[in-house]
Design a protein that fits this description.
alpha+beta, Alpha-Beta Plaits, 4 domains, 4-stranded antiparallel sheet, 39% helix
């Protein structure tokens, strides 16, 4: 005879049914898949998706399913061998400009997925995958920032007619003045440019000197910003791989750990995560017709045909105003109209070139 009240039996039954339902997605397993995305992070168009499907069909591949996931196209196969062969075929068919990653996709039925249920992430220890440990070169960030200060100081003193020699040395900017009487004026100018630095000064023969040093708080801020920006970059690149529940986190002062469960192609993951981006600042060829240049397939003299992420053509002048070598800092924010913007800080040489080009 059952000695428990009905409500307790119902509670146990509900717990068992609920637990079984939550665990249900884990019994279906995974399908090997190829994830196709564009290097410019644009969305895969229907034409591109059809081209990939046709190429696979002509080659005799059996596709279990193909659907878009974010800006990417996910194609599922019935075996790892088919997955690897299809990836090689698509690399040749699509050509450059695309990223093809190998992945494992759950076979969870749509009705279970509609309930918000998904398989448990097993992690690297049970599922396997890739583990990366990156170290951020924070010393070069500090050196570049100090060199930027030196350029700014030299330009400002030159504009004021002060004879000087400015050198960045081991995290310190040293300014040597030819005349003693320029010391007070120079200190005022440098403090006005960068009030957060620690200054020291003195006389040396007929001249004088000033040193500007980064304090501990400023050094820590520069290093923390460098690590934080690299974490953001790595997370964006991990998203290109389409990995379920990746781990990207800071370890210690200057290291970043990246764990990608289920990733089958370490070389591809390494290429995507370790790729180097370049930055160039150019002026638009506003007097020319970009649509006409795109139709003709050639750019006017002195211009270069490029494309926005949405495929719209744009003409840029070939002359580069500044590049990443003059980029000191960049922060996300908003412009005067409330639109998302990136605010950049250029070193003196890049700033002078930008001012001259935009006047």
């Amino acid at each position: 005879m059952n000695r428990y009240p009905l409500w307790k039996n119902l509670l146990v039954l509900i717990a068992v049914v609920g637990g079984g339902l939550v665990a249900l997605p884990n019994i279906y397993g995974d399908d090997p898949a190829v994830l196709i995305s564009r290097e410019d992070q644009g969305a895969i168009s229907e034409m591109e998706a059809d081209s990939a499907r046709r190429a696979l069909a002509v080659a005799g591949f059996e596709i279990l399913g193909a659907r878009t996931r974010g800006n990417s196209l996910l194609i599922r196969f019935d075996s790892v061998e088919a997955q690897l062969s299809a990836r090689d075929l698509l690399v040749e068919q699509l050509g450059p400009g695309y990223i093809l990653a190998l992945d494992l996709v759950p076979r969870t039925p749509d009705w279970i997925a509609a309930l918000g249920l998904r398989p448990m992430s097993l992690g690297l220890d049970l599922q396997g995958g890739v583990h990366f440990l990156f170290e951020v070169d924070t010393d070069s960030v500090v050196t570049k920032r100090v060199e930027g200060y030196a350029d700014d100081f030299s330009r400002r003193l030159r504009e004021d007619g002060i004879r000087r020699t400015v050198q960045p040395l081991d995290g310190v900017v040293r300014v040597e003045l030819r005349r003693r009487e320029d010391l007070e004026r120079s200190e005022d100018l440098l403090t006005e440019i960068e009030p957060d630095l620690e200054y020291d000064s003195g006389f040396d023969g007929e001249g004088a000197w000033i040193t500007a040093t980064l304090g501990e708080a400023r050094l820590r801020e520069l290093r923390d910003n460098a690590v934080s920006k690299n974490i953001t970059i790595l997370r964006n690149r991990v998203n290109e791989l389409g990995v379920a529940e990746p781990l990207v986190q800071r370890q210690g002062l200057g290291r970043i750990v990246v764990q990608l469960p289920g990733v089958q192609d370490p070389a591809q993951a390494s290429r995507i995560l370790g790729s180097t981006a370049t930055v160039e600042f150019r002026i638009t060829c506003y007097e020319e017709n970009a649509l006409e240049a795109d139709r003709l397939g050639r750019a006017p003299l002195g211009c270069e045909l490029q494309y926005h992420t949405d495929g719209r053509p744009i003409l840029l002048r070939r002359a580069v105003i500044a590049d990443g070598g003059q980029l000191v800092d960049a922060r996300q924010g908003f412009d005067e109209n409330g639109q998302p913007a990136v605010h950049v800080n250029l070193a003196a040489r890049g700033a002078d070139a930008m001012l001259e080009a935009t006047q």
